[in-house]
Design brief:
This protein is α/β, with parallel strands linked by helices. It has two domains: 41 residues, no CATH class; 275 residues, HUPs (Rossmann fold). It is built from twelve helices and eleven strands. The strands form four sheets. Strands 5-4-3-6-8 form a five-stranded parallel beta sheet, with helices on both faces. Strands 1-2 form a two-stranded antiparallel sheet. Helix 1 packs across helix 9 and helix 7 crosses helix 11.
Length: 328
């Protein structure tokens, strides 16, 4: 590779095949931060003076997001911009979560960012390992079960931390995978919820995804170049279900046709925007409507929320919980 196509002085380090840019390491990092800033501005994700909760799992994506938002904010607290708070959920996965939580704590200490930690055990009465120990007897994937509890846990952490908005590290790959999975499942309503501009007025806080337009491999490269630690172990439940197959398929398409994921993202954003325009709030941001759960009172798209339904299933089937009494 020749000289950097941006600065023209340093040797090229990485080529974005979809755009033709060949960038040195420094320019790659700069353009990644700039892309995140443009995404935040385009979709009005963050507002001045807000207390921003960053969902910090301790993986490379979330650690990168915290570092970039810290850079854009000019530090953990800025009178001109806002305040950052890290929100970590300990799902309770033996041999996996402890390392990630240590990485999260270390970066928060380095950047001077407040760190709030909640756990499945504290919130629901069981760890993820306990909830999933009847794996061979169920049709539900581990990711679908964990996702329901994790979303609620982040909401609870956001309330505990008193934040105005939660930023998650879902990247472009995550977004288009979810869009494709909803298409394959025929779930049109959930496709509408993918609009980056939408929020649900009944949930505790807004949720935003500043990495929506950043490829997963570019987040990983940013993490490597900024010396963010990578976990030595992967989640033992990650290869279950449809997402892995969709991920592999999209990666294969991208390898053969550079830019295909960007095209799919553009199409997905257009579709979700049209589906979510039915109702708008006073500030002209589209709003998703929910109803209170009949059991816990939390927002739900149906009569009983996913957390209550899933919790009941876990207490009925988990071998590890058979001798315990459900707290609900």
């Amino acid at each position: 590779m020749g000289d950097c196509s941006r600065c023209g002085t340093k040797p090229s380090y990485f080529t974005r095949r979809y755009s033709g840019e060949s960038l040195c390491a420094d320019c790659f990092k700069e353009t990644t931060v700039e892309k995140v800033a443009r995404t935040i501005s385009k979709y009005r994700m963050l507002r001045r003076g807000e207390r921003v909760g960053v969902a910090l799992s301790g993986g490379k994506d979330s650690l990168s997001l915290l570092r970039i938002l810290h850079e854009l904010n000019g530090g953990p607290i800025s009178e001109a911009r806002g305040e950052l708070v890290a929100l970590t959920v300990d799902e309770g996965v033996a041999g996996y979560r402890d390392e990630a939580i240590e990485h999260a704590k270390a970066l928060c200490d380095e950047l001077g960012v407040e760190h709030v930690v909640v756990s499945y055990s504290g919130l629901f009465g069981f760890s993820l390992d306990q909830a999933l120990d009847w794996k061979d007897e169920r049709d539900l994937t581990s990711c679908s079960m964990c996702g329901v509890f994790r979303r609620r846990a982040i909401d609870e952490a956001a309330v505990k931390a008193n934040v105005d908005v939660v930023a998650t590290a879902h990247n472009l790959d995550d977004y288009v995978q979810t869009f494709m999975m909803n298409l394959l499942h025929g779930d049109v309503e959930r496709i509408a919820w993918l609009d980056p501009s939408t929020y649900d007025e009944n949930f505790p806080v807004r949720r935003v995804k500043p990495f929506t337009e950043v490829y997963e491999e570019e987040v990983a490269l940013y993490a490597f170049l900024t010396k963010i630690p990578f976990q030595s172990a992967s989640c033992p439940y990650m290869h279950e279900g449809l997402r892995s197959e969709v991920r592999d398929y999209l990666n294969e398409l991208e390898a053969k046709h550079p830019g295909m994921k960007n095209v799919l993202l553009s199409s997905a954003l257009e579709v979700t925007s049209k589906l979510s325009k039915a109702e708008r709030a006073d500030d002209d941001l589209p709003v998703k409507k929910t109803i209170p759960c009949a059991k816990c009172g939390k927002p739900s798209s149906k009569g009983i929320c996913g957390v209550c339904r899933m919790t009941e299933i876990v207490w009925q089937h988990s071998k590890a919980l058979k001798t315990q009494e459900s707290p609900r």
